[in-house]
Design a protein that fits this description.
Layout: H1 33-46, H2 59-66, H3 70-82, E1 86-89, E2 95-98, E3 103-106, H4 113-119, E4 124-135, H5 138-144, E5 151-161, E6 164-174, H6 190-198, E7 204-213, H7 216-222, E8 229-238, E9 244-253, E10 257-260
Parallel strand pairs: 3-10
Antiparallel strand pairs: 1-2, 4-5, 5-6, 6-9, 7-8, 8-9
Length: about 270
């Protein structure tokens, strides 16, 4: 089977795009032309008419086919790249390619990253960046319901999906509730470890989301440029008894993940 990254150079642009005719771009309607192109390509990607790995025509060919300037097209492609729908590379084998679909992180259910990936048939991995016993900060102490300066285990890990870095986990666990935690292997599911070794597993959690950007250290670990959009998920996880077991601040790559939350009508709503 031919590699989609090695398309025939003289193949007509229409043969590599959804539909044989270009979309009708309307000017002067309040929506910019580049936004219409972005929406058209995004729809083709989301619906599967353009598949992961598909290579788009060159900027010159695609702009000519659409009847727009290269600057207008570049603006649309740049927005698609920001959304993680396409990747753009330079060089002889470079171009614009349809990106792999984002990994869904379902916050409706409390399941670790490993379990979420297993459910999607993906291989989860973990690379331990740091594991140490440290004093609890004021924020950690409040979340874990312990005293400031009480001992906690700090575990920082780079989480992988099929070998690709997806997020940085930064978790804190009260030492007195899981003594010797960091003496165990930490490259698997920490929730499974808590259950197997200490008879406790997170049952519910309070999570908050905040968009941030990658600093130098985060960018290096995740393999992205500094300033890349990330999603910070702050979590306090509780055992069935109501005792807090974990305080975490996880950083997800915005170009590789999306957060999903299921909601329903409140039963007691008037």
């Amino acid at each position: 089977m031919a590699n989609p990254h090695q398309m025939v150079a003289d193949q007509p642009p229409a043969d590599r795009l959804p539909g044989r005719r270009p979309p009708k771009l309307v000017r002067g309607t309040g929506q910019t032309v580049h936004a219409q192109i972005e929406d058209w390509l995004a729809d083709a990607i989301v619906t599967g008419r353009l598949a992961p790995g598909d290579r788009l025509p060159t900027e010159q060919d695609l702009a000519s086919w659409l009847g727009v300037s290269r600057m207008t097209l570049r603006h649309a492609l740049a927005e698609l790249a920001k959304r993680g729908l396409v990747t753009r590379t330079v060089g002889r084998a470079g171009g614009t390619f349809v990106a792999e679909p984002k990994l869904e992180q379902d916050l409706t259910i409390l399941a670790g990253f490993s379990e979420q990936l297993r459910r999607r048939g993906l291989v989860a991995g973990a690379r331990v960046l740091a594991a140490a016993e440290i004093p609890a900060s004021a924020a950690a102490a409040a979340a874990l319901e312990i005293g400031v300066g009480d001992r906690v285990y700090e575990v920082r890990r780079l989480r992988l999906a099929h070998g690709q870095p997806i997020l940085i986990e930064h978790s804190l666990f009260p030492v007195r509730r899981c003594p010797g935690l960091i003496e165990h292997r930490l490259d698997g599911s920490l929730y499974d470890l808590l259950e197997e070794e200490y008879g406790q597993r997170p049952h519910r959690a309070r999570e908050s989301l905040e968009p941030v950007t990658a600093g130098v250290r985060e960018a290096e670990a995740l393999g992205v440029p500094e300033g890349t959009p990330l999603m910070l998920v702050e979590r306090t996880a509780y055992a069935r008894s109501g005792v807090p077991l974990e305080f975490a601040r996880d950083l997800f790559r915005g170009d590789r993940t999306k957060v999903v939350v299921w909601t329903s009508e409140f039963a007691g709503q008037i």
